[in-house]
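Example 5.3 — Protein kinase domain-containing protein
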Amino acid sequence: MQLVRSPRAGQIRSPWALKMLNKRVKPNKVYTERLKIEAELLQRMSHPNIVGFRAFSKTKILYLGMEACDLSLGDMIEKRVEDDAGPFSVKHIIKVALDVSSALDYLHTKMQILHGDLKSYNVLVNGDFIICKLCDFGVTVPLDENGVLNKEKGVKAIYYGTEAWSAPEVIHGGIISTKTDIWPLGLTLWEMMSLMPPHTQIDDIDESLETLDDSVASEEDYFSDKYGMKIILKVKYFTLSD
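Solution (predicted structure tokens):
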């Protein structure tokens, strides 16, 4: 799929972002169905930290019209690496954490669904982190009243996700629940600090953990990145220390 803002360079840019099937790719029922599911879901949702629905076309050209945002967090991370600008500020990291957490709380409690593919490229940012919005709801899965994957809803209960951001229970097998969205949120915040994709340079991280003081509590592992930002790595989530 692809996102477009205007058909040609130099023309007035549309206030919408259009999501459509890439013309260079053969028609695929799976992606067509995902786009329809996403459109139906966005129509039912209303939250300041979730990208807004604008229109859906079922004509010859299938497209989903959404609220336009400036950039994805993933693109911003890539640009920061290119510019050798260093990690994002604590203020911006906390802003992403708060806005995305608010969106997830809405999804998990009000809509009873798991986002299913949370990553930096699915977090949209307006301006200088004025507001962050969650997008891409084509692979959501239903949750039961306890926040656990609802397997009674058949094919819609299959978790997809993106492997690099997947939680341990997805990779190694386990209970899929609301926590499965929290893990990739932690990895996204880690990306903003390390400016690296998740699960890279594992050997370096393992070596640094071996040098930790034995007095550290067993449930928390402390380490500092090359910029001196202390990170608390917990079993299910990441938090910034003072």
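Remark. Helices lie at 29-44, 73-82, 90-111, 168-171, 179-194, 202-210.
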